[in-house]
Amino acid sequence: MTIDWQRLRIEGVYKQNEDGQLMLRTKVPAGVLSAEQAIKVADIADRFSNASVHLTTRGSIEFHWLQLGDLPEVLRLLAAVGLTSRGACGGAVRGVSCSTTFSEGFAFAQVLARKIHRHFAGNPHFEDLAKKFKVGVDAGYARSRHLIQDVGLVFLGTGDEGRDLYDVWLAGGLGREPQQAFLYAERITEAQIIPLIEAVLRLYRRHAPKGKRLKFVVREMGETTFRRLLEAERARGPAELELADAVEKRLTALPHGPRTIVEAAIFAGQLSTGALRGLAGIAERFADGYMALTADQNVAFLLCDSSGESEAKGALGACGFAGGAPEERVNFRICPGAHECRMGLAPTRDIARQALSIMGEGKMDLTWAIAGCPNSCAQPQLAEIGIVAVKKAPGADGVRRPLFDLYRRRSEGFGEKIAEQLDLEELLRAIQELE
Ligand code: SF4
Fold this sequence. Notes:
- With 435 residues, the chain is of the alpha+beta class.
- It is 30% helix and 23% strand.
- The strands form four sheets. Strands 1-2-5-4-12 form a five-stranded antiparallel beta sheet. Strands 6-7-8-9-10 form a five-stranded mixed beta sheet, covered by helices on one side. Strands 15-16-17-18-19 form a five-stranded mixed beta sheet.
- The model has no long low-confidence stretch (mean pLDDT 93).
């Protein structure tokens, strides 16, 4: 049977290796997962994968080592708990990510993220795009993740007329040609957001060559022309579509007032099914049955009752997340790299462990990221120290080994490249010498 790998992508599937094993990515809108969903995910990984899952930097979940014949059953089981992988890969509106700095407004942002997900996931008007299309909703500007979205929405608060207000950033992205998003509009209302995203998508579909993202379209035509075309496109549709709710909708702790957050640091986002079931139990006991998959590949619980904090931390320790080991202490985003990704040039988890062992106490408080290829899934340009495997080249012994670029971020924008094409030894030395 000939398999159309390109077509499979729309179902959230990538070929993992030449042996026909697959990766399936599941969207988790806003990264908010219920305990029931977590248990179903663990059951699927036990049955069809390698008894573990990978948490991505966009709050999605990846299963690795799947077989093609198992996909229909895996998709059926995911659907039973309201999860879909439709559009999680390929040219589609990808999983809608949500700020997990848990600043004021997180509860509003995650509700909007779910509305956007419902509107665009599996909607044929917005599939078969030239390339991926990423939407992110953030509750504030901390961590700057609005800069890397095709559409980045930043929640500002509720205006005088009781309408929620957002800044809109467009055409950002990482990959081989990183591009910071530009501020398109300030203080637009929630009701304007879906018509605006639709207009951007129509424009993107019309102007993007195959394989190119929105950032390419804007770069080619220039921001001024793009703005003019977008205004004309918006005028063709409704200016507003009210998204108001009849009752308050929230899946995590209350939007206002003090919140207590307890977090399990998951090294490289690699979570065993046993640990995931343990975390589901903690969600049920302490967090109203929900957990949040964070942009740093961790699992957070927004406690309903702050008096349960020390007990919740004890329960996390019993699950193996006591927080003392360097792998847990250092905020280190790590993509699957050559361990599990066909694009991977370097074994990212191994290199991260080597970096942890030599970085020294002073650098443990910085944010770190390593990506196994220039696609930059670990968002290295947004970490204080970012590492990207850029190519493989033969060493003196003729063996091809990965070379790395090193980034340092000290301001609001992307990190600056401070060294390039280092071999592993040079990379580790450069890390030790970093100020
Ligand atoms: S950065 Fe490259 S190696 Fe890492 S997960 Fe993305 S595509 Fe794979």
